Amino acid sequence: MKQDKPASCPVIHLDNLELTPQTNGQNFAAAFAAIAAPLGASKLGARLVEVPAGKKAWPFHCHHANDEMFVILAGSGTL
Q: Which pTM value belongs to this model?
């Protein structure tokens, strides 16, 4: 079957994302940007989160309807 147009390839470059900063008190700070939704994903949640050294992104919490996965691209993290 011949296609008139090539299939789109949903690729996002992390350096091109516009991060939104969020802080709360002295201990919590993060900047984040959606990854999955802008690409059209409706059942996958994914976002880039940058956490400054010595800060926490969010207080300890749990989710009852979804899982979380952390991929550390630079530095190290503590759960």
A: 0.74
SS3 of residue 17 by DSSP: coil
Tell me the per-residue pLDDT of 29-48, one tens digit each, with 9 for 90 and over: 999 999 988 888 888 889 99
In angstroms, the CA 5 to CA 75 distance is 41
CA of 53: how far to CAs of 37, 49, 72, 78, in Å? 27, 13, 13, 11
Q: Residue 19, Cα to own-chain centre: how many angstroms?
A: 10
Judge contact between 48 and 21, C-beta under 8 A: no
How many CA atoms, within 13 angstroms, populate the side-chain half-sphere of residue 72?
9
- The predicted-structure confidence for 13-30, as pLDDT tens digits, reads as follows 899 899 999 999 999 999
